[in-house]
Amino acid sequence: MPAKKGKDDRVKELLRQLFLDVAGEEAVHLVDLLFGKKPVNEFLVAKKLKLTINQVRNLLYRLGDQGLVSFTRKKDAKKGGWYTYFWTIEVEKSLVRLEERLGEKKTRLGGVIEKRKNEQFFVCEGCEKQYTQEEALLADYLCEECGEMMVAKDMDAEIEAAEAELVGVCDLLEPVGEELVELRKKDAKARARAVAAELKKKALERKKRAAARKRAKTLEEKKLGKKKKAAGTGGAGSKKKVVKKKAVKKKKPVKKKKAASKKAVKKKAKGKK
Ligand SMILES: [Zn+2]
Q1: Half-sphere exposure of 162 toward its Cβ, with a 13 Å CA cutoff?
Q2: CB burial class (10 A; 0-12, 13-18, 19+) of residue 270?
Q3: How much distance in Å is there from the Cα of 148 to the middle of ligand 1?
């Protein structure tokens, strides 16, 4: 299986879980219809899911409320200028939402397990009414409904069930976290590319503006020059003496040669001045 397809399958499976949780069985099929595609016309969605357009909109709005899907709309000339909505899955937002929901579930299950491990419950075998330890004590271990004697509840099965559920939640949290890391990496790269492209564009625009300014200036100077000549103000004024910059003589580094005689040094010094 190609890596990309395998990855997409994992994301799709996670999205299916979330959509099922949020909007029920019908929403699961939306994942297959919308995932990895350009925004899909809601009429096509209705047709594929064999639902009415109102049912589809209802479903999509429910998911949209949580930010899991979003739409763009286009005015449809064929449909008398009504808007047609095109839907797409917000994959990152969906995964964030799934992570939140799973996190909440994990906390809740942890609490349940802790409570069941530390608390003793009592149950009436006659009517199955359940009592906390305190309630049982207050009632003298006699059921308030039917007067039967309560028995201590065996919590192991419930604890095991909650623990199994917790394992399931953690097994889902891990891939969700991994997929989010991947998505954010991709996003960061895309953003960096966009910023680089924007900077390049701006630099180019600056360069163009600078070149345009230079051209305008040269043109202006030419015009001015012609005007001056035409007005006869040229002559001496325009023939400004070009003062050449004095070439700065570089000082020769004075070598302190032990071998050089004092005379030679003096001559050199005189020659320079
Ligand atoms: Zn009872």
Answers
A1: 18
A2: exposed
A3: 5
Ligand 1 centroid–CA 144 distance in Å is 6
- 141 vs 149: CA distance, rounded Å: 6
Q: How far is the CA of 164 from the centre of ligand 1 (A)?
A: 30
Q: Which residue has the higher pLDDT, 10 or 248?
A: 10
Residue 45 and residue 56: Cα distance in Å, rounded?
7
> What pLDDT score was predicted for residue 244?
52
Domain count, the chain: 2
Q: What pTM was computed for the model? A: 0.65
* Residue 248 domain-assigned (yes or no): no
Is 46 within the bounds of a domain?
yes
Q: Tell me how far the alpha carbon of residue 136 lies from the centroid of ligand 1, in angstroms.
A: 12
Is there a single domain that holds both residue 72 and residue 133?
no
- What's the CA-to-centroid distance between 158 and ligand 1, angstroms? 20
**How far, in Å, is the centroid of ligand 1 from the Cα of 48?**
52
pLDDT tens digits along 143-152: 999 999 999 9
d(CA 18, CA 212): 57
Mean pLDDT for the stretch of residues 103-107: 97
Q: How many Å lie between the centroid of ligand 1 and the Cα of residue 157? A: 21
Going by pLDDT thresholds of 50, 70 and 90, the confidence category of residue 250 is: low
CA of residue 163 to ligand 1 center, whole Å: 29
| Interatomic CA distance for residues 247 and 257, integer angstroms | 29
Measure 137 CA to ligand 1 centroid, in angstroms.
15
If asked whether residues 100 and 173 sit together in one domain, one would say yes
Give the model confidence (pLDDT) of 167-199 as tens digits. Answer: 999 999 999 999 999 999 998 999 999 999 999
Tell me, rounded to whole angstroms, the distance of Cα 74 from its chain centroid. 26
pLDDT attached to residue 142: 96
Q: Give yes or no: residues 117 and 82 share one domain.
A: no
Q: Is residue 202 part of a domain?
A: no
